[in-house]
Amino acid sequence: MMPADQPVLLGVLESGATATENSAEETHATAIAISGLHKSFGSQVVLNGTNLNVASGETLAVLGRSGTGKSVLLKLIIGLQKPDSGSIRIHGQEITRLDLDAMNELRKQMGFLFQHAALYDSLTVEQNIAFPLKRHTQMTESQQRARVQELLASVGMERDLQKMPSDLSGGMQKRVGLARALALEPAILLLDEPTAGLDPITSGEIDQLILKLQKEYDMASIVVTHDLLGAKTIADRIALLHDGNVLIEGSFAELEESRDEFVSEFLKRDS
Ligand SMILES: Nc1ncnc2c1ncn2[C@@H]1O[C@H](COP(=O)(O)OP(=O)(O)O)[C@@H](O)[C@H]1O
Ligand SMILES: [Mg+2]
Predict the structure, then answer these.
(1) Is the CB of residue 46 below 6 angstroms from any atom belonging to ligand 1?
(2) How confident is the model over 233-259, as pLDDT tens digits?
(3) Is the CB of 240 under 6 A from ligand 1?
(4) Where are the CATH 3.40.50.300 domain residues in the chain?
(5) Tens of pLDDT along 117-176?
(6) Any idea which ligand is nearest the CA of 73?
């Protein structure tokens, strides 16, 4: 899916050339560009000038203590909430000023999995995954069926087509949620705590599945997680959110080298 010239474009940007707004370079290389993002609820400041970039094909893990605004950040990117100020650009397009119709259109390029898998309880696995296809594509019934089969196979759930969500284990629900998030072949994937509430072995399996899907679909992804091991497994880069800002970002090794007290404490916690 990625154009053949991608690495070249990335190289150009990394070497310090500036991309003008909405230029082809930025559109290709920077999938998500967040700057100066502010969001408060009443007197509670949650995001306080947050800056974050995710390149096409890159997986960024966002870590942070519970209540630091990780889920809020994802909701702002999907446009379910509006920031107080700041900029969010998706493939160069400023989304904070989009109206609902335009936002819905853009959202088709974004797959997301909420913290609580949020499958439709009254629909079968097959119907759950067909839902975005029915809503957003012109596919015929048989094309939809074929696509659902393909998606379920890619998450190892091809035999569970007719099951209801309540008949699935937590790990299986996440798999179905992932398949549904991928239904429209999104350029951007946002996962909120994809392994929360799962046992360590199942978490490891889901991490491996996410890795495999990243390679297959070649998306820009943000994975919010409290799971350090998971972040280390699936992410190209890690950002640690603290007090409304990215305190540090880099590879896991770079985080480990940090002398910052909060960073060291955070890494010590469960690694
Ligand atoms: N819709 C909302 N109204 C009021 N407060 C909210 C709302 N959404 C989130 N918050 C608050 O914002 C803070 C960050 O929440 P959240 O992003 O869910 O944290 P986390 O990092 O654990 O995902 C929390 O204190 C939460 O209570
Ligand atoms: Mg959360």
Answers:
(1) yes
(2) 999 999 999 999 999 999 999 999 999
(3) no
(4) 1-5+29-107+186-271
(5) 679 999 999 999 999 999 999 999 999 999 999 999 999 999 999 999 999 999 999 999
(6) 1
155 CA → ligand 2 middle, Å: 24
> How far, in Å, CA of 134 to CA of 245, rounded?
39
Tell me the C-alpha distance between 174 and 57, whole Å.
22
| Mutational pocket test of ligand 1: of 39, 40, 46, the residue with most ligand atoms within 8 Å of the beta carbon | 46
Residue among 53, 55, 52, 51 at smallest CA distance from 12: 55
Decide whether any atom of ligand 1 lies within 6 Å of the 70 Cβ.
yes
* Helix or strand run (H / E) with residue 222: strand 220-224
Going from the Cα of 191 to the center of ligand 2, the distance in angstroms, rounded, reads 10
φ/ψ bin of 99: left (φ > 0), alpha (ψ from -120 to 50), beta (otherwise): beta
- Ligand 1 centroid–CA 26 distance in Å is 31
Cβ of residue 77 lying under 6 Å from some atom of ligand 1: no
d(CA 34, CA 74): 11
CB neighbours of 123 closer than 8 A, spacing ≥ 6?
131, 164, 165
Q: Probe ligand 1: pick from 52, 72, 73, max atoms within 8 Å of CB?
A: 72
Element (DSSP H or E) covering residue 180: helix 170-181
* Burial classification of residue 229, based on how many CB atoms lie within 10 Å of its CB (0-12 exposed, 13-18 middle, 19 or more buried): middle
| Atom of ligand 1 minimally distant from the CA of 68 | 21
* Residues 119, 178: Cα–Cα separation, whole Å: 10
The CATH code of domain 1-5+29-107+186-271 reads: 3.40.50.300
